[in-house]
Amino acid sequence: MVPPSYYLVVAALLFGLGLYGVLIRRNALIVCMSLELMLNAANLTFLTFARHPLRGLPSSDGNAVAFLVIAVAAAEAAVGLAIVIAVFRSRGTINVDELRSLRN
Amino acid sequence: MTEAILFWIFAALTLAGGASVVRARNPINAAMSLVGSFFALAGLYLLLAAQLLAALQILVYAGAIMVLFLFVIMLLNLSPAELGHERFRLSHLPGLAAVLTATILLVSLASRLHFPQTSAPADFGTVAAVGRALFIGYTLPFEVVSLLLLAAILGAVVVAKRRM
User: Do A23 and B98 touch (CB under 8 A)?
Assistant: First the structure.
């Protein structure tokens, strides 16, 4: 049997990759995709703890929460991409470093 | 034994896909790697006995969300010049430090936990069990999510529309 902590380590590394994409990359589309990676890492953690709880019996509650996270991620992607399109129309760029009209 | 082999394959594919998302220069390549990463993650979900979530991962993520991403990428139709070149800059160092700190903290925390051996109930992760958990314990969040999706649809249409 694979130890449950291996799944958590995979989730941690996936979260680290997503964080790298959000903090370092300048392309707004790649930043959105990295956000999805981080949400998926959180989902993997939820499912690991649902199947292998630290105490008590496995329950499907963790699966229910992961289901809600998927729905929220879908809403987030729709709004985020709409904002990317609106910004590209008004500024002609999706480089997040060039979007600094609030900083004067 | 089979479980261990499948775990290593899916874990390697997930992380390789994620790494190629954050390294890709062209957003199309990033989106394709993301699809691969999501499929491998669905495999990991199956190993964790979450059948419903594995199916939803493929349907909603690899199906719906990735199609949305591809539509936006093709709609923007960025030229190589607009993609720009991302070279290393000194201002990246704090970000790299934050990434390394978060990853090392999470990994050390994860490897420190001790899990007791448990066997899952027969209906664990099935549509019936997850539905029961969702509609008994999480009724309010479920309804709030439906409102959130409605707000997101309206918001996306209003924000992306050309003129008010």
Answer: yes
Query: In this structure, what token pair is assigned to residue A64?
Result: 């229910």
Residues A87, A73: Cα–Cα separation, whole Å: 21
Q: Show which of residues 2-61 on chain A sit within 8 Å of chain B, judged by CB atoms.
A: 2-21, 23-27, 29-30, 32-34, 36-37, 40, 43-44, 47-48, 50-55, 57-61
Residue-wise pLDDT tens for chain A (104 aa)? 888 999 999 999 999 999 999 999 888 999 999 999 999 999 999 999 999 998 888 888 999 999 999 999 999 999 999 999 999 988 888 888 888 888 76
Which chain B residue has its CA at the smallest distance from A51's CA? B48
What are phi and psi for residue B124, nearest 5 degrees?
-65, 130
Q: Is B135 exposed, middle or buried (0-12, 13-18, 19+ CB in 10 A)?
A: exposed
CA nearest neighbour of A25 among B89, B121, B55 = B89
Q: For every one of its 164 residues, what pLDDT tens digit does chain B have, with 9 covering 90 and above?
A: 888 999 999 999 999 999 999 998 889 999 999 999 999 999 999 999 999 999 999 999 888 999 999 999 998 888 777 776 677 788 889 999 999 999 999 999 988 888 888 888 888 888 999 999 999 989 999 999 999 999 999 999 998 887 65
| pTM reported for the whole predicted model | 0.92
For B6, the closest chain A residue by CA position comes to: A2
